[in-house]
Amino acid sequence: MKAVVATDLSAASEATIQSETCLACIGRIGIEEIHLVTVVPSNVHAGMPGIDFEKRRRRGLERYSRVIEDAGFDVESHVVRGTPHRRIRGIAETIGASLTIVGSRGQSPLENRVIGSTARNLARTTVTPLLVNRVEREAEDPEVLREHLFRRMLFATDFSENADRAFDSFSYLRGATKEATLVHVETPKDPGLADDDPEDRLDELAGQLEEWGIETRTDVRQGDPADEILAAEEQYRPTTILVGSRGHSRLRRLLLGSVSEDLVARANGNVMLVPPASV
């Protein structure tokens, strides 16, 4: 399996790369090859003569590559020019990546505030599973907040086809997952669930995980989906929230897309988004 790791070479975006625990977790789910990607926007030289950003970034990626190679991965580096989220997404598609990883905070005002806005744009458009790795917001030398990326998962489901696809991610995450909390948030207009008991449906999913040796609990809530998922995060303290990036139907696509974007923006820990299958 291959992963794309996007970086703007800021202190925040290098946190995953510098964390031996995070790299071990990535390896534990079957990732063997990591593609480091940094994007130089087309207009980055405007008003900044004499600064070779591409050369500086290549030097930065060389340092990161050594760290990742020492952790046992094959590494390729890409310094590209264009719109960050489009180029990252394009490389992930081209190489057949199983996962894209991006930090949740950028801190390089001179060159490019790539990571904060790019995480949100990728949340809207990614065609591969996306892991948004949360780092400390205020620290000058930030660290990741949840080093064991997949140890304690919170899976939020609306029982849609895309939610089922997100649940299928446990087929490879189980190598690193010890505990899972399965959450469904009931809303006044839950289509297609009138004749189904959500607790029974969660119990069925929990049974699958427990067969894999994952300790599992279930939680059915009522209210606003994003607010309740974040309340469950506060209660259970998972390392990562796992959710499909789309839901029941095209009519609800904007609403459910905004839920995943809310989680990317507001969650305290990591967020993993699984997009719909490519048509």
Automatic annotation (TrEMBL):
SUPFAM superfamilies: Adenine nucleotide alpha hydrolases-like. Residues 2-132, 150-275 form the UspA domain. Pfam families: Usp. InterPro entries: Rossmann-like_a/b/a_fold, Universal_stress_UspA, UspA. Belongs to the universal stress protein A family. This is Universal stress protein. It comes from Natrarchaeobaculum aegyptiacum.
